[in-house]
Amino acid sequence: MSIRRGFILCFSLLVLGPCFAADTDQGPAASSSLRLISRSLTPNAPGFHNAVYLKKTDASLRSGDQVSIDKGHTWKNEPMRPDFVSGLPHGYRREPVTSALDPITGRLITIFNALDTPGLDPNAVEPPVAQETYYLRYRVSADDGNRWLFDEAIVQAGNFTAQHPFEGVWVGKNAIYLGDLGCIPLVTRAGKVLVPAQTTPLGPDGKLWNPGGGWTYTDVLVLIGTWTNGQHLSWRASQRVVGDPKRSTRGLIEPTLAEFPDGRILMVMRGSNGGKADPQHELPSYKWFTVSRDGGESWSAPEPWSFEDGQALFSPSSMSALCRHSSGRYFWAGNLSAHNCDGNLPRWPLVVGEVDPRSLKVLHSSVLIVDTQRPEDKNHGRLDLSHLTLIEDRETKQIILTYPRSYNAYKSNEWATVRLALK
Predict the structure, then answer these.
(1) For residue 335, is it within any domain?
(2) Is 28 a residue whose pLDDT tops 90?
(3) Helices and strands in the chain, H and E counts
(4) Which residue range is the domain that position 325 belongs to?
(5) Helix, strand, or coil here: 306?
(6) pLDDT tens, residue by residue, 42-92
(7) CB-based burial label for 276 (10 Å; 0-12, 13-18, 19+)
């Protein structure tokens, strides 16, 4: 159903209340859950960006080839071995996206978006052929992130192959891949490894189906891994989570997961308006959510995510991330808007809010604006605040939020590190 943009703007400025200032040049507003401790800018990505702890209790960290053994104060280059990439044919890709430490086994798991495409320009960003050819690989380390045990394609157990890794996926016709840095593997209390992934569906003609006419169209699959005796994972796929193209013109994108104390698993997903089916961006710009009560096997019908008080939550088509704090509290970071958005834009302000463990919605009073467009930003072209990661500082218990402040449609950026304390 279409919504008039003027109504959305006036309504949103009323319901977002004191946590979300109408004047976006203002600084962070008050939050009932979080306090801004510091914010710093650097020309290069900080070590904490997309980092993972290597042990259950130790403070050693790894972020790609960078390792810190002093709680993130200093970092040094230590690539893991063996090198599974240098001998591949020109045009092949192995792109590490996200990692997780299994606290039960102590193993490090990293998920890779992979392309086996001879001759593909290695500098091409999001090449269109990837929507037909992306598939997933994983690696495991059992020695605190020093060496990889293997590099394997993720293929469902049973009558499946590397070319047909899951039901409804045929590499070369359609793809399965991780969308962004919020797609972090979740190790459940039962010891299962859940990987939130997205897949491009096929239409009746056997070709990519894009009913909304946007840049891409995807469904969501959660891949469920069970450890074998050989330190590998045996995989199967959850029920497919399917969006409604009449409500989200790009389907469901970039899922992020959190498991709550009662066993429910929350998945929050990016949606979109716009595209050929909604050229005036009249559809409401929502994030979408679904809940599993059986360890990720099946999922409720996806619905718009909102505040716990029932007020609408407007967000552009951008990634977001859920995280669990050691206190047992849960937080979400992403873009929040005071009005209906136009597809991907605007990707500011950037906010963090607490998730209510009962309703699994964002606590309205908890929302903290950590960054937004300021007058000086306008001189650098369009501002985008996305591609964020969250990690807890085990020493201070602060949440460390890192992200690029990207300018002029991602042509340049600087890096922000924000520290947040819990109230």
Answers:
(1) yes
(2) no
(3) 2, 26
(4) 1-50+307-423
(5) strand
(6) 999 999 999 999 999 988 999 999 999 999 999 999 999 999 999 999 999
(7) exposed
